[in-house]
Amino acid sequence: MSRPAPRTTPEPAPSVEELEEQERRLVFRRFSHEDAWALGSLLVGLARERRAPVAIDIHRAGQQLFHAALPGSTPDNDAWIARKRRVVERYGASSYLVGARFRAKGTTFEDSSRLDPDAYAAHGGSFPVRVENVGVIGAVTVSGLPQLEDHRFVVAALEQFLKV
Question: CA 20 to 30 Å from 164, out of 20, 130, 143, 151?
């Protein structure tokens, strides 16, 4: 006699306050080309361990410092990366947090931001590269998983990289 698989309840989405706390914690002292390579390589290693079909991108000051496309990712992931990254660059906050702030107001980013949805996506997966006493200088972005998983994947890698 086989038993039914146990039911799992998905973790609830983080609140706006929890997302803002992540951004206060995940701050770099500096961020160089070498840091981008090391962080990108960490993300690739974690993605390979999980067999995650993602594309990974790191930008600083308008320059792409790292990009990798793992098996299963597609050109669409690169388009999503660009759209999510533009949200971080415009709002100075993670793409997931920006979307959550709109949802907390009872609306959506698409309905209320007045930005072109072909150029901007407030979906999880892009996180600001924030440097102490400087501010947001870039973004680290992942695309290929559901948006909350993309966000959590980037946050977990940043926590490991920054040792926080």
Answer: 143
